């Protein structure tokens, strides 16, 4: 057991001049107990749902752990979601209380979260559910404004419903006896996208999830006392739940929480943070890696990255070129890379290399974690032995897996267990090579079927990004009268590179040579940027709409830059308009 005075989470703000704050484990316990008493005073009891809509500030894990201490079920909604999305989730879980902040800065953009919450609370009321209280962290006044001549907005307030966090905490005792929980009592729920458009409330329980989070964190990142670990994920996603909060804290780790972006105030911010805190384990997304690659080695050379021991990749398959850039430029040819495959539903890593133990292959998720049994099935449900490609499923449960969908166990069974009875179906495709390594090929619905040839978007994107003029690529399918589907490619060139006919021809030739004539793209479009959520995920449904020139793209409020959608429509090649 780690000593209670270990250094706990360290906060790095949006602006380098923002206040920096760290918590010892003793101070963290006291703050958690105080806020647990706040929740109890507002009538929150074991089993109640508490919605949280907050930026990456220390009050966020304090709120999560306070809920866990009294047996309340926290439901975090990423603070980039729209009021409609927040309202839908609060209504579905019948939240008793909402916890938020007055606002935050994201790069140079102010986000007025409390105003968005008020819209959501009104919508929930119209839907037939009343959220009783809203507790608000005063955050904007303690951080550095990121715009010249910025004028602060008034914070909307309802005296009969809204409460300031700091005022509520003033007279609370720093001790709160924990609620006794059964192993299978719910710990939290987290909504993830559903194929029907209605989000699914993935439910994780207390003992199994915590055990799996703690174990995978310690083993996969090879964490040792004295290390400094940093996961760049937002806590609003499962990566933040497991590998920013529960996994590190259960191991008494020193970890960094980051409120900013990789590009503010300059594109060396990640490397500056690693240097500042002497980070030893760094865990980020391939999207971020590819976005930073285009700036070259200059931003990296300004900082010392000598303390790094383990690099991690999460969120999507990493293409070999990005993997090698990460290994050579950030890891200096000496760090292990753990390319982790897992999902909101799995709770933690299920397929991953282990640092120093697994021979690395660029782009491979490698082998299953201890006790996890992946299997490949074909369309008929027959097992694929040895080398081959098919649906990735699991044949037995593990401690961290989801237990149900909130208030909808029937949908849980239908979504994950009916396609292949007796197996948990991930919805992803995978390939197993001759050495037994698993290569994740992407979501099954991201598979492309061109003239009867099945291929994954990740496979084509990996080839496109090998070109030395390409920073990022995204591929979707478009209906074709002869082939059934054809490839439509979006290309972001490197900085100072132009998009021209020669590049288009080179890319088509490269795909033809590397995959085959059947895979040659029909359309290659210039994309100054890609439609990404604030967590860095590419929103492929928007790209599919652009490919067929359908402007009914749906809700784009979760995009980091909504204006990119119109730019992409305007950039569609003339022959496709």
From TrEMBL:
Transmembrane segments: none annotated. The keyword Nucleotide-binding applies. It comes from the Eukaryota. Pfam families: AMP-binding (PF00501), AMP-binding_C (PF13193). GO terms for biological process: acetyl-CoA biosynthetic process from acetate. It catalyses: acetate + ATP + CoA = acetyl-CoA + AMP + diphosphate. Residues 459-537 form the AMP-binding enzyme C-terminal domain. GO terms for molecular function: acetate-CoA ligase activity; AMP binding; ATP binding. Keywords: ATP-binding, Ligase, Nucleotide-binding. Residues 21-403 form the AMP-dependent synthetase/ligase domain. SUPFAM superfamilies: Acetyl-CoA synthetase-like (SSF56801). Its EC number is 6.2.1.1. Belongs to the ATP-dependent AMP-binding enzyme family. This is Acetyl-coenzyme A synthetase.
